[in-house]
């Protein structure tokens, strides 16, 4: 942790600049919160117009404070913020929380004010949270530096948010649901302290077991990714990002002035770093509760125990949909259950204890199942004689010390609420319905799998010098758009297999190229103005060498009629690809925040229609490439579904990594796409290439 950030976590003294006697004002509310919360350190009120504020002696300036100040809260008008911070530096204050709004979120004048603040802060020893934020809470220190009333419960969740209003709603909700925080931080405009630095600090915070965040945009994508990867190796990290849609991204920009950035890039960064992204706030905290209280699972297997068949079926359906394994119990487990359960109990998975199940029966079933390799989901539907508290106590007693996660569902309302509360207090997260519990467990599984994924660097021998020289030649010739002929030497330098091809200026040249390549060939139009060749009749397959001239004339005529204004540069003559492969897409773009991204998906002419793609940051390792393949809906077909020959997935992973290394190594490649990339039993073969270079007039 940056030593300067330690002031926020354990300050001995706090000053409020803009302190007011009116608790309805921001400066008055913060001062009231500090006093009501029981902060044990020194509290200093700074107000140039009063000598006493809320019963505390006040000073006109922080420069007049006789002793040291660790953290200052700034609640003065926006034009006075920079001056107040300069006073803080003069008094050797280590940290400041700027609550004041009126910066880049407030138009041109505010943006100029924030730019001046950022430029000044760059050379200062002071660390600043905000501006335009709700503030900072450290419950174990009785420290509430916000204008939100009340102190949340202390707990293991380190939470940060780029939305202050969302913070107030979560604080209010958390009190009703018993959610506790180690840190609760509103980041605001992040003129200094960013989400990335706070994640890094939370890793080193002994009170934080789970890191949570609501993000609207990141300041530095690559730094965020590297920091999150280090954090996720130590503590579970669950993030939620707004701005998925174009409308949401615009709302983000108007909210804090931040750029939402590429949603796919953010998703890729979180997954690749070993974290997980929550889709809703409910999912965020459902998963956080489970992670804070239970160990990570070691596999996808789950055993469901219920007293109601319908509840068990719902849980089973949800588990299967989430990719969990609801496999039948082993014979030994069934025998132990049969010895303690009534004859009408179902001994499969789910284990149905039937409706009259008592607390003792739950205990007997859990004892018979024992702490194996599976996670357990224990369900309770209230019946006439249900003792929810008794069942809860039995669950806690029977599973205490288990090495695998146990989650509970007490479906219903008031009748089961005392039991649910007992479970939560005892360390077993309890949910209202099966779907929420299953979703939380599936998130735990995803985190465990991502944490276990080896992070080995991919460093094969490649010809970087040759690739760089080829790009330089292309740049010097003004070749900004790249086709197969321009892109193939780059791929070959990185040992990515490419199907052989030759360019021809006319029909006669096409015939000669076909004879040289031998066998049936494919003819493709060459034009910088045509991206989708098939849509204009610009592709003809299986052409015999003796028919190539006539086929080339016909192709040129079709394309000329379909696109009369397009510039035609000739015809590409290419060997026919093997017939048994699946058409895939392997592409790369450069994200302004996260840098080079690699996209793998179903390819061919229906790539946009199928929309089956996975994104990662480049470069990446072989295990990450295999994980990309496994995430595709196309994956079963690649593994040999429905009698298809199994594709060489190791070869495909190798090609993905080489391609990613190429785009990471060569920053002038703004875009590069292999479509189709033919993948089959013989490996992966690039059939066509498109790309674009940057920095070329």
Keywords:
697 residues; alpha/beta; Rossmann fold; 4 domains; 7-stranded mixed β-sheet; 24 helices; 30 strands; 39% helix; flat
Structural commentary:
The chain has 697 residues and is an alpha/beta fold. It has four domains: 3-291, Rossmann fold; 296-452, Succinyl-CoA synthetase domains (Rossmann fold, 3-Layer(aba) Sandwich), CATH 3.40.50; 500-576, 2-Layer Sandwich (Dna Ligase, domain 1), CATH 3.30.1490; 582-693, ATP-grasp fold, B domain (D-amino Acid Aminotransferase, Chain A, domain 1), CATH 3.30.470. It has 24 helices and 30 strands. It has a seven-stranded mixed β-sheet, sandwiched between helices. It has a seven-stranded mixed β-sheet with strand order 9-8-11-10-12-13-14, with helices on both faces. Strands 20, 25, 26, 27, 28, 29 and 30 form a seven-stranded antiparallel β-sheet that branches. Strand 1 (13-17), helix 2 and strand 2 (42-46) form a beta-alpha-beta unit. Helix 10 (281-293) crosses helix 16 and helix 19 (507-517) packs across helix 20 (548-562). It is flat and about 100 Å long. The protein starts with 5 loop residues before the first helix and ends with a strand. 48% of the residues are buried.
């Amino acid at each position: 942790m940056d030593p300067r950030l330690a002031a926020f976590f354990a300050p001995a003294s706090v000053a409020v600049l803009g302190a007011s006697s009116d608790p309805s004002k921001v400066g008055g509310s913060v001062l009231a919160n500090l006093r009501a919360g029981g902060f044990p350190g020194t509290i200093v009120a700074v107000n140039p117009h009063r000598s006493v504020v809320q019963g505390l002696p006040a000073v006109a300036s922080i420069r007049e404070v006789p002793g040291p100040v660790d953290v200052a809260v700034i609640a003065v008008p926006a034009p006075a913020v920079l001056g107040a911070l300069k006073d803080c530096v003069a008094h050797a204050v280590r940290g400041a929380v700027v609550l004041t709004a009126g910066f880049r979120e407030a138009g041109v004048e505010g943006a100029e004010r924030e730019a001046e603040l950022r430029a000044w802060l760059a050379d200062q020893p002071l660390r600043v949270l905000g501006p335009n934020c709700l503030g900072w809470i450290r419950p174990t220190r009785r420290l509430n530096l916000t204008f939100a009333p009340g102190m949340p419960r202390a707990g293991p969740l380190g939470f940060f948010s780029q939305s202050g209003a969302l913070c107030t709603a979560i604080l209010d909700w958390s009190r009703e649901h018993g959610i506790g925080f180690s840190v609760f931080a509103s980041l605001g405009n992040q003129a200094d302290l960013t989400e990335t630095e706070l994640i890094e600090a939370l890793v080193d915070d002994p009170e934080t077991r789970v890191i949570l965040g609501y993000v609207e945009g990141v300041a530095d994508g690559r730094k965020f990714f590297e920091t999150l990867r280090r954090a996720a190796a130590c503590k579970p990290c669950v993030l939620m990002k707004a701005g998925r849609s174009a409308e949401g991204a615009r709302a983000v920009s108007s909210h804090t002035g931040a750029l939402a950035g590429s949603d796919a890039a953010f998703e890729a960064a979180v997954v690749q770093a070993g974290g997980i992204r929550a889709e809703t706030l409910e999912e965020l905290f459902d998963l956080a509760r489970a992670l804070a209280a239970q160990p990570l699972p070691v596999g996808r297997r789950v055993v469901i125990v219920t007293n109601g068949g319908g509840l068990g079926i719902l849980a089973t359906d949800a588990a299967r949909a989430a990719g969990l394994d609801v496999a039948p119990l082993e014979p030994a487990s069934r025998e132990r259950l049969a010895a303690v359960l009534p004859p009408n109990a179902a001994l499969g998975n789910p284990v149905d204890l039937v409706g009259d199940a008592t607390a003792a029966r739950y205990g007997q079933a859990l004892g018979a199942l024992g702490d194996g390799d599976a996670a357990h989901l224990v369900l309770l539907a209230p019946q006439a004689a249900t003792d929810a508290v008794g069942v809860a106590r039995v669950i806690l007693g029977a599973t205490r010390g288990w090495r695998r996660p146990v989650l509970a569902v007490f479906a219903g309302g008031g009748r089961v609420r005392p039991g649910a509360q007992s479970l939560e207090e005892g360390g077993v997260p309890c949910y209202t319905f099966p779907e929420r519990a299953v979703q939380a467990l599936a998130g735990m599984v995803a985190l465990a799998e991502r944490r276990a994924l080896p992070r080995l660097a991919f460093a094969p021998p490649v010809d970087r010098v040759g690739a760089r020289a080829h790009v330089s030649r292309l740049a010097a010739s003004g070749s900004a758009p790249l086709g197969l002929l321009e892109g193939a030497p780059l791929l070959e330098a990185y040992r990515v297999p490419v199907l052989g091809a030759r360019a021809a200026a006319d029909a006669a040249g096409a015939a000669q190229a076909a004879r040289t390549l031998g066998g049936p060939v494919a003819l493709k139009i060459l034009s910088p103005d045509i991206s989708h060749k098939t849509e204009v009749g610009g592709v003809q397959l299986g052409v015999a060498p003796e028919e190539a001239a006539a086929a080339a004339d016909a192709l040129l005529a079709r394309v000329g009629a379909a696109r009369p204004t397009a510039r035609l540069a000739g015809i590409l003559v290419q060997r026919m690809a093997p017939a048994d492969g699946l058409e895939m897409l392997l592409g790369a773009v450069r994200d302004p925040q996260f840098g080079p991204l690699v996209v793998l998906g179903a390819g061919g002419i229906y790539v946009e229609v199928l929309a089956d793609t996975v994104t990662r940051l480049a470069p990446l390792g072989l295990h990450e490439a295999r994980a990309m393949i496994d995430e595709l809906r196309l994956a079963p077909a690649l593994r040999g579904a429905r009698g298809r020959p199994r594709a060489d997935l190791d070869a495909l992973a190798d090609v993905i990594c080489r391609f990613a290394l190429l785009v990471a190594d060569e920053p002038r490649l703004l875009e590069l796409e292999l479509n189709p990339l033919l993948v089959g039993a013989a490996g992966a073969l690039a059939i066509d290439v498109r790309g674009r270079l940057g920095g070329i007039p």
